Fold this protein.
Amino acid sequence: MDNIEQIKINTVVNGEKVEAFVEPRLSLVDFLRNELELTGSHVGCEHGVCGACSIQVDGSVVRGCLMLASQADGADVISIEGASDAGIVADLQKAFHERNALQCGFCTPGMLLTSSELLDQKKNPTRAEIREYLSGNYCRCTGYEAIIDAVETVAIDRAGSSHNGKS
Amino acid sequence: MKPAAFNYKKPSTLTGVLELLRESGEDSNILAGGQSLMPTLNMRLSAPSLLIDINGVDELFGISVTDNTVRIGSMTRHAELEKSSVISEHIPLINAAMPYIAHPAIRNRGTIGGSLALADPAAELPACLCALRGFVEMTSTSATRKVEAKDFFRALYETDLKANEIITAIEIPRYDQNYFSFIDELSRRHGDYAMCGLAFHAKIEEKIISDAQIVFFAVEAKPIIAVTAMRELEGAKISDVSLEVLQGAVGNDLDPFGDLHASATLKLHYAKELIKRAITSGITSG
C-alpha cells in the first residue's frame, strides 16, 4: 500500500527516554527487539496465546505482540531487561534458578514479569491462584510444577520478610 | 506473522474518531483493546487500510452510577471491571465473569466495548449483558442510539453496529440485593474458549424465583436466551425445582453447533450440567 505515514513516538523504556519514528504495523515487542535491541522479550505465537512477549506498560503486564509500538507513545515501558536491572525480579530469578524452573529460557522473561505482577497484587497466593495467573504463559520444556514451586517460594519468603520488617 | 501495512490515527476526541470513520468507511477498523483485532491482523485474516485508535478518547473510559443504571464507558478494560467495587456491588455478574475471560495480560488491555462489538459466540460479556438486560449505546456523526442487548447480537460475529458507528457505552439496570448471579463455563483449560457457558440472573426472594434470565454462550452463533427454561422457573420455589424438567426445557431451547472441541451432543450435555450447577448454587446461596 502507498503512503504509509510513519508515527512519531515519545516513550520511556526502562527509565530511558526514547524518541522514534515507527511504521504503524510494528508491534511493541518487535520495536523493543529490533529497534532498541532489547531481545529479552521473546516472540512466540504472535497472536496473544503464548505469553513469551510479555512487557509491562504503564504498570500492567501486556502482550507485546498485541500492542503496536505507536500505542506506546507517552507510555512507561518496562521490559525484562529493566525489571532485571532494577532488581524487582531478583528473588524470582534466584528461585527459578534454584528450583530449575527453566530449561531453554524462552518463556522465562514472560513468566517472571507475570509472576511479579501477581505477587504485587496478592501477597499470599495459593498454588491454584499462581497456576491460574500464569495460565496465559506457555512453557514447553520444564512443565509448570517447578515454576509454580519457585513463585510459591518467593511469595512465602516475601511474606516472611515483610512480617519480620514490621515486628 | 506480521500484519499487512496500514495507516494509524489516534484522535483525542469522539468527534474526531467518528469523522475519520465516516470518511474512511469500511476500509478502516476501530482499535480498542486490540486483543482480538491484533491477532486477526497478525494472521492477515483482515487487512484494513486504516486503524483508528480510540485509546486517546477520555470520555469512553470509566464507570458511573445513577439511580437506576450503571454506565460503563466502552473503553473500560476488563481488569478495571474486575477490580471495581461499583461493579461488584451493583452488577456482580460482570465481576464474576472476569476470571473466565482469557488471561490477566489480556484483561489488562481488552475492553468491554471491544468484546461486545466483536460478538464472539464463546465470549462471556455478550451473554452477561443479555442476562442483565443491558443496553448498548452507539454513536455516529449524526446520532446516538441505544439498543437492548438481546437485539444487538444478530448472528455469528454480527451485531446491530453500523459501519459509521462506534459503541460509546453500556448501560445496565441496577438490581436490588435479592438478585442472584451465576456464571460458569466448561473449557479445555483455564482461559481457553468455552465449549459451553451459562450466565444466570434471577431474583430469589424468600426462596421464590422470579425474573429469571438464562443465557447460554458458546453453543450457537450468538448468546441464546433460554425462554422455555425461564418460564419453568418463574414463581417456582428454588428448592422444589425439578432439574429433569428444567434440563428438558434447556434441551428445547438450544440447538447447539458442534465444533473442534465439542460435538453438539456434548454441548447440550454441558448446558444441562451448567443449569443444574446454577440451581444448586442458588439453593446454597440462601
About this structure: Chain A has six helices and five strands. The mean pLDDT of chain A is 95. The two ends of chain A are 65 Å apart (CA to CA).
